[in-house]
Amino acid sequence: MVIYIGGAFQGKLALAQKEHPEAVVCDGKMPEDTMEGASYLLYHFHTLIGTKLKKGVSVEQIVEEVNALKGQLILVCDEVGSGVVPMEKEMRKYREGVGRVMTLLCKKANRVVRVVCGVGTVIKQSRKVILLRHGATQGNTEKRYVGRCDEPLSDAGISELQNNKNAGVYDEIYECIKHTKYKVFGSPMIRCRQTARFLFETEAYVEVEEFREKDFGAYEYKNYEELKEEVRYREWLSSNGKLPFPEGEAEEKFIARVEKGWQNVLCQMEKEDLETAILVVHGGTIMALLSAGSKNEFYDYQAANGRGFLCNVNEERGKRCYLEARI
User: Fold this and answer.
1) What does pLDDT average to over the chain?
2) How far apart are CA 299 and CA 289, in angstroms?
3) Which of 140, 159, 165, 246 is the most buried (most CB within 10 A)?
4) Are 139 and 221 in contact (CB under 8 A)?
5) CA-wise closest residue to 123 among 132, 108, 111, 107
6) DSSP 259-309
7) How many CB atoms lie within 10 A of CB 142?
């Protein structure tokens, strides 16, 4: 949801239509038979609110009705709370009602733009981050520690991604990026690049060197069956992965490396005004991103191959990724 708000005759509609030329305009009324993938511009939204309030519809009911609409919504609303307080009780109730409805809707909106003299100032911008683990490799299937080994997707891994697509696993992602300015970032390793190309059919892939998987050192490309008799490995398991891998990368260094890459992605999102970033990365990279600044443990954020998390970037809490839903 995108909201344009400001005084009367300030160019709100022109700006909204310039930024959303595909949207169907509904002047002072709710759209009918909305559908996913379409965009609807609700013009004179303050008038629509006033009409419903006169009919006895509550503020909460109006908000529920708007939230139930499908597709992308663009609301264009006059700021009616400024100026002289009107003498008439009904006008005061109208002003209060519009204010309360817009306050609730702005909490949910991805973007809120205040328009003055045709110039829009973004006063809220929620950025989404989609964290996806690459598809399965042969080593993943054999439950090996696949870190620095640049292994491609297996045939089974590609089939699993296709099955996920057919089952609608990624539909929410595809719906999200239909309506937002986005870019695909990820690890430079081939399994991530292949996954991004398969799922998003794009060559515009921004490689982030810091998003490589953790270096498993002496345990690289080995599995439990091959390591279970080794004393150091049993000690590592007993530490819940807190001990560094022999000859490998310590957890705190790995998290610091991933954090550096995340800050670079954030800078690019802000510079290019991206609303969504898709990060096709490794299981360890996802755990590092989500556990940083969280009360939860590193291994609480494990993701299966081809799965991941929908997140929001919280501006007030250090621009961290905060979990919204599992994919």
Assistant:
1) 91
2) 11
3) 140
4) yes
5) 111
6) HHHHHHHHHHHHHTT-SEEEEEE-HHHHHHHHHTT-SS-GGGG---TT-EE
7) 14
- Same domain? For 93 and 137 the reply is no
Map tokens 């390793």 to a residue: 189
**Alpha-carbon span 324 to 262, nearest angstrom:** 18
Categorize the per-residue pLDDT at 173 as very low, low, confident or very high, splitting at 50, 70 and 90.
Answer: very high
Is 68 in the same domain as 131?
Answer: no
C-alpha to C-alpha distances, 320 to 176, 210, 296, 313, 316, nearest whole angstrom = 20, 17, 14, 5, 9
Q: Per-residue confidence at 53, pLDDT binned at 50, 70, 90?
A: very high
Structure confidence at residue 74 as a pLDDT band (50, 70, 90): very high
Cα→Cα distances 246→151, 190, 216, 301, Å: 22, 25, 8, 23
180: left (phi over 0), alpha (psi -120 to 50) or beta: beta
φ, ψ of residue 204 in degrees (nearest 5): -80, 75
Range of the domain at 300: 127-326
Position 178 confidence tier, pLDDT thresholds 50, 70, 90:
confident
Q: Are 258 and 211 in contact (CB under 8 A)?
A: yes
Global pTM reads 0.73
pLDDT at 318: 56
Among residues 83, 78, 80, which one has the least CA distance to residue 115?
78
Q: What is the CATH number of the domain that holds 217?
A: 3.40.50.1240
pLDDT in the model for residue 202: 79
